[in-house]
Design brief:
Blueprint (H helix, E strand, L loop, with lengths): L1 H13 L7 E5 L6 H7 L4 H7 L13 E5 L19 H10 L17 E4 L2 E3 L2 E3 L2 E4 L5 E3 L4 E7 L7 E6 L4 E11 L6 E2 L4 E7 L6 E9 L2 E3 L8
Antiparallel strand pairs: 1-2, 3-6, 4-5, 6-13, 7-12, 8-9, 8-11, 9-10, 10-12, 10-13, 12-13, 13-14
Helix pairs in contact: 2-3
């Protein structure tokens, strides 16, 4: 059961977060997200997450989509009628997936003091779902808000030691690249409470904290939610 819960958490938060190889596909007239995803052998949901698309019907000709894992651009397959149509069943699934969450406001504070060296968004063609904050090795990392630890471990190598804290209103925060974690799964923490220590980033080979804020499965720009 514990392994299943951990697996669910990792898939939930990182199925679209891990950066890697891929190509940009320029949408042509008559193409849609469903057909494009099937042509590249990935799911519509994965393609939408990689490009932060909430409504597949809004994909337009001329738009460039990042195709994670693809090695080359391919021709999009046409439907049986020769026209690409967005399936109504697929649209219903999207509406269900993009359900609203309770309008609960959570006051987030900075997990540590430091310079933001990587911002939220697309960086060098790759999706970056949080911010990187530079700090000295071993700097204490504190909880950004009251919550409960739902994950504390280091199973995903690219994220190093990581802590995930669940908050009110379907919010959660992620603290990664830690030298060590100071909390355990199931532990209730208060804002400002020690939860980890800054470690070296495996990608940039420098000490920093990778920090994310999410609402449900959606990644949010932390700098828009952190106290000034």
């Amino acid at each position: 059961m514990k392994k299943n819960i951990i697996f669910f958490i990792l898939v939930l938060f990182f199925s679209a977060c891990a950066s890697g190889s891929g190509v940009y596909h320029k949408v042509k007239r008559g193409e849609n997200l469903y057909r494009i995803s099937k042509s590249y052998g990935i799911s519509p949901k994965q393609l939408a997450r990689a490009n932060r698309i909430k409504n597949p019907a809004k994909v337009k000709a001329g738009q460039k989509l990042w195709i994670p894992g693809a090695s080359k651009v391919v021709a999009v397959k046409k439907g049986p009628s020769g026209k690409n149509k967005v399936r109504s069943a697929n649209t219903k699934k999207w509406k269900k997936k993009n359900r609203t969450y309770p309008d609960v406001k959570v006051a987030f504070s900075w997990p540590l003091s430091g310079k933001v060296v990587t911002t939220f968004g697309t960086v060098d063609g790759e999706i970056h779902d949080g911010i990187d904050i530079a700090a000295r090795l071993g700097t204490p990392v504190k909880a950004a808000a009251d919550g409960k630890v739902i994950y504390s471990g280091g199973e995903i190598k690219s994220y190093g030691n990581m802590v995930i804290v669940k908050h009110a209103g379907a919010y959660s925060t992620i603290y990664a690249q830690n030298k060590s974690n100071a909390v355990k799964k199931g532990q209730v923490v208060k804002a400002g409470e020690l939860i980890a220590y800054v470690g070296n980033s495996r990608r940039s080979n420098r000490p920093l904290l990778h920090f994310e804020i999410r609402k449900g499965k959606d990644a949010l720009d932390p700098q828009k939610y952190l106290s000034k």
